[in-house]
């Protein structure tokens, strides 16, 4: 439930949206600014924390993993 600041490369393929699930920054100055922005804006902090949890549930929960594995295994036989 903690907000995350990450690089474009780090969020690639994770279905994350900048400003909704995560703050994206690609250099030291932008990274520092994003951290400060998240710490100073309570609404942003809350939105990022909730968005990160929801993204994890939607894409990486045990139920989703189980469905994905079952679908892949079904194509083998």
Question: What does this protein structure show overall?
Answer:
The chain has helices spanning 8-11, 28-40, 42-60, 62-74; strands at 5-6, 23-24. By secondary structure, the chain is mainly α. Strands 1-2 form a two-stranded parallel ribbon. Helix 2 crosses helix 3 (42-60) and helix 3 (42-60) packs parallel to helix 4. It is elongated and about 55 Å long.
Q: Specify the biggest β-sheet.
A: 2 strands, parallel
In what range is the share of β-strand residues? 5-15%
Order of strands side by side in the largest beta sheet?
Answer: 1-2
Number of strands: 2
Q: List segments where confidence is low: pLDDT < 50 over at least 5 consecutive residues.
A: none
SSE succession: EHEHHH
Average pLDDT level: 95
Rg (C-alpha, Å): 16 Å
Shape: elongated
How many DSSP helices?
A: 4
Distance between the termini: 40 Å
Task: Give the % helix.
Answer: 55-70%
Question: What is the topological layout?
Answer:
Blueprint: E1 5-6, H1 8-11, E2 23-24, H2 28-40, H3 42-60, H4 62-74
Helix pairs in contact: 2-3, 3-4
Which labels suit this protein?
2 strands, 5% strand, mainly alpha, two-stranded parallel ribbon, 77 residues, 64% helix
Give a nutshell description of this structure.
By secondary structure, the protein is mainly alpha-helical. It has 4 helices and 2 strands, in the order βαβααα. The protein has helices spanning 8-11, 28-40, 42-60, 62-74; strands at residues 5-6, 23-24.
């Amino acid at each position: 439930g903690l907000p995350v600041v990450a690089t474009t490369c780090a969020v690639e393929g994770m279905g994350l949206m900048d400003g909704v699930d995560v703050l994206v920054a690609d250099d030291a100055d932008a990274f520092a600014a994003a951290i400060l922005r998240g710490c100073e804006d309570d609404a942003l902090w809350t939105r990022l924390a909730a968005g990160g949890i929801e993204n994890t549930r939607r894409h990486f929960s045990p139920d989703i993993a189980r469905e994905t594995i079952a679908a892949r295994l079904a194509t083998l036989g």
